[in-house]
Amino acid sequence: MNGASATPQVGPPLWLLAELTYRCPLQCPYCSNPLDFAHSGQELTTEQWVSVLRQGREMGAAQLGFSGGEPLVRQDLPELIAEARALGYYTNLITSGLGLTEAKVDAFAEAGLDHIQVSFQASDPELNNAVAGSRKAFEQKLAMARAVKDAGYPMVLNFVIHRHNIHQMNDIITLCERLGADYVELATCQYYGWAFINREGLMPSRAQLELAERQVNDQRQRLADAGSAMKLIFVTPDYYEERPKACMNGWGSLFLTVAPDGTALPCHSARLLPIDFPDVRSMSLREIWYDSPGFNHYRGDSWMPEPCRSCEEKTRDFGGCRCQAYLLTGNADNADPVCDKSPHHERILAARRAADHATAGLGELVYRNAGNSRLLFRG
Amino acid sequence: MKQIPRFRRGFRFQWEPAQNGYVLLYPEGMVKLNESAGAILNEVDGERDVEAIIAALQRRFPEAGDLGPDVREFLRDAGQQHWIEWL
Ligand code: SF4
Ligand code: SF4
To answer: Where is coiled-coil annotated (chain A) (predicted)?
Structure first.
């Protein structure tokens, strides 16, 4: 480990996210895939993924996520799961549940899959299917959630929360209890990718958010009193904070994402930054992590301009999210505008005001599909 | 009462050379365990009860004095965190 590396203070990537494909049968308008996914290059082959998994594990990665797009689209998924398990990863499959069958659920368990996370769009079929852009999604998700439970996996259900479903908090939690979930992720939209262009139509108002927070807290208390092990994880939108989140625990400090075409990224949305990121086909994972300019770009704090440079809090939040700084100020070096010390904080305040008056219905959102992707990037 | 701890479904305990220690892995999460937590959880096998686990640790660390109270407290906490469950 020591010796040759130019940046010996950098620890290993403990988490590896393998985005196997951008293909997906659903069209969520908050999808975190890049807007130009339809123009993405060829997907890595099975052998190339196996090599990525081996290298990552050798470097110390212990948590592995298979995501996408919809990872089930990849026919080699069972093979990749078996390889990952043999290497000693804790292996998570993050899926919409579409394309899953009871037979696959069992086969994956046999291959050594540790956990399946099924994402829902809402607590009822009508809204769920409208958000997902698919008519039969909800029923399928319910059936698969039950199959996951029956196969003995821990059950994590994920709901992306926005202004059109945030009023369903109590119903969502009841549904999860009925399905026997161990963890419920109530993840408010993060405004990158498709969610950024749809922000006005997705962002909840402060009143909506405060009500939801109260409901979640009451539910937590009720679950604790009942001795339930079901855990509620509520990720609130940082647009309502005055300090940014410590994005990815610091750039290039714990997380390594590999995109479908082999691009290695410090987080799954970093692709939108005007930075050259390395390709796993032309560089070893070790070189990528420790030595590539892309991964070293925002390590440490010497890159910071004011107000972060002289700020005491920079070791806590690292100046926030680079993607958010780029999307909202045009320069990724800037302080994340969520911070009220940022000269661009007004952008966040304007988004909050807009959320108080937004009227857009679900039908007015830009859905994530190849047609819209090509339209947005006709060039 | 004989109480037998075992790891909760979906929780995996393993040694990680890169972190030079034991970790507990669970859905999308990982805790790095300190030395004593690692030593205690290393004895959890879903077969032996708390007293047998204490006796095993006592044999492994003969210099350590009475380990009983600390081990019982740690396992009680681990149960409250839902890392382990009781058979
Ligand atoms: S967010 Fe929706 S559209 Fe995007 S990959 Fe996930 S399921 Fe597919
Ligand atoms: S000025 Fe920069 S470092 Fe300080 S709190 Fe704001 S974002 Fe964080």
So the answer is: none
The pLDDT confidence band at residue A1, using thresholds 50, 70 and 90, is very low
Residue at A215: amino acid letter: Q
Nearest to B10 among A12, A65, A182 (CB): A182
pTM score: 0.91
A317 lines ligand 2 (CB under 6 A): yes
CA A312 to centroid of ligand 2, rounded, Å: 8
In 3D, which of A155, A125, A147 has the Cα closest to residue A137? A125
Q: How many CB atoms lie within 10 A of CB A306?
A: 11
Is residue A270 within a helix (H) or strand (E), and if so which, with residue range?
Answer: none
Classify residue A311 by burial, with Cβ atoms within 10 Å: 0-12, 13-18, 19+.
Answer: middle
pLDDT at B1 exceeding the cut of 60 = no
Cα gap A181→A202, rounded to integer Å: 26
A237 vs A241: CA distance, rounded Å: 8
Question: Where are chain A's structural domains?
Answer: 15-240
- Asked if A231 is an interface residue toward chain B (Cβ–Cβ < 8 A), one would say yes
CATH number of A15-240: 3.20.20.70
Size of interface A-B (CB pairs under 8 A): 57
List the single residue in A with minimal CA-CA distance to B9: A154
Beta strand A255-258 pairing with A15-19: parallel
Q: Exposed, middle or buried, A80 (CB in 10 Å: 0-12/13-18/19+)?
A: buried
Tell me if B87 sits within 8 A of B6, measured CB to CB. yes
Which of A63, A153, A231 faces B25 most closely, judged by CB atoms? Answer: A63
pLDDT tens for residues A159-217? Answer: 999 999 999 999 999 999 999 999 999 999 888 888 888 888 899 999 999 999 999 99
Chain B residues within an 8 Å CB radius of A150: none
